[in-house]
Write a structure and sequence with these properties.
6 strands, 27% helix, 169 residues, 4 helices, six-stranded antiparallel beta sheet, single chain, alpha+beta
Amino acid sequence: MIRVLTMSRGLIEDVPLSAIFPQASAADLEAVQRAARGVDAARAWEERPEWEWALRHAVFPGVGPATPVVFGADVVARSGRGDQLEFLLQVLWTAEGRLAVSAAVSVACWCESDHATHEVDAIELVAGTSISLGWAFEAGAERLLGWLADPRDADYWRDRADLPSRRER
């Protein structure tokens, strides 16, 4: 039996940041909320800004087959020709039980062998003794905002990563 675990969804104001990050300081929580609002303001698509979170992952759930995501947003741009560009900003647990902020740009795959998607740019910042959760999230959001300012065309990103474009198929 496969058990699908869903995440809660809502506006940044709906996210119980202190419950999903009980170890974070008030300054870190404020930094996360401020950076998330910046990401929401930069979204150009007509979608409602929505964040996802999992209260069950507020405490490290242990090493498992999947990476436990605590909080994040997935901004997807689809074109009328079946193409896709995706921007991710997530806080997740590492295998060592530390929180990490991950930001990435992915494109739909147009390779001969379909890989589904390709990550064309990414960063991961692990929070801990020298980097706070708030600082890591602000840095990830800043990187995401930079990506959102670039062309929102999947082939632009494929060209940067030297991947085949749809027109080459």
